[in-house]
Amino acid sequence: MAVLVLGGAGYIGSHTVDRLVEKGADVVVVDSLVTGHRAAVSDKAKFYQGDIADQPFMRQVFAENPAIDAVIHFAAFSLVAESMKKPLKYFDNNTAGMINLLEVMNEVGVKRIVFSSTAATYGIPETMPIKETDPQKPINPYGESKLAMEKIMHWTDLANGIKFVALRYFNVAGAKPDGTIGEDHNPETHLLPIVLQVAAGTRDKLQIFGDDYNTPDGTNVRDYVHPFDLADAHILAMNYLREGNESNAFNLGSSTGFSNMEILKAAREVTGKPIPTVMAPRRGGDPDTLIAASDKARKILGWKPEFDDIHKIIKTAWKWHQTHPNGFADR
Ligand code: UFG
Predict the structure, then answer these.
(1) Among protein residues, the one whose CA lies closest to atom 18 of ligand 1
(2) Beta carbons of 264 and 195 less than 8 angstroms apart
């Protein structure tokens, strides 16, 4: 029994690989290293550099590792703002990539996939917190590309019996508590790493995109979840499929919302730094509020997130930023 982790050199993928090898799993990683970092991947995993849409390459990976019986798929582009400007990049890499992958999985007879979906598939929710059964009407191409991937998996399950779990994450933040792996995007666009770069002095100021949203303080409200807790959810979902359960979708969030201003305040408290901030215009594609109802994952998968406090999450990220101001280039 081995697990193939696609995108295992990325932010959430590398934390999941770390957790898997810690639990003694046999792990094979594929990553193109377009956005991932080789240094983020545990030495205990077997690593291949390549694109998941490259079918001859993927056939070779499966052929060389016949113990693979499950795939965890993180290999996608995931920037909302970029997707608004370059939709075709997202439909090509994410959605077409999934078609290529499922064709090969079907050929080689690997019938289980755990997939990184997103809160962005819900668009502007009608009720809060968001339940898995709520309408999925994305307002950006990133969310649309992932919703299409969910639908493709659904029909491939019915036709070919490839069972899937779609994990719809909300906002991911934090790093391995020992500070050895963390978030490193280039360019960085996410709120918390930017806030901490300002705290660390590697960036001048934070811009908050929009203070006229329909929220208590006018800034967007998001639900933050730690990559270690996400990693555990992926492992639970893989085991759920290995036990022979049906395809399913789960939200992963803390079920608590924090506005961008509240994140800034918490980061000021954790770091003790002033973090200069200016208000800026709205960024395209941002819904007012996204908060998960995650009781389904807790009940069916037995998921118990450990990082339930935003200060705790920020503390882990701050340790990573302080020890790696240039990300993996400092390792
Ligand atoms: N923001 C700022 N200033 C910045 C960066 C971000 O104000 O410099 C704001 C954004 O406008 C938004 C909030 O901080 O209101 C969070 O933005 P991020 O870019 O950190 O995260 P997103 O909410 O855009 O997206 C993330 C993931 C997506 C996922 C989504 C689900 O990147 O993959 O969460 O909520 F779909």
Answers:
(1) 190
(2) yes
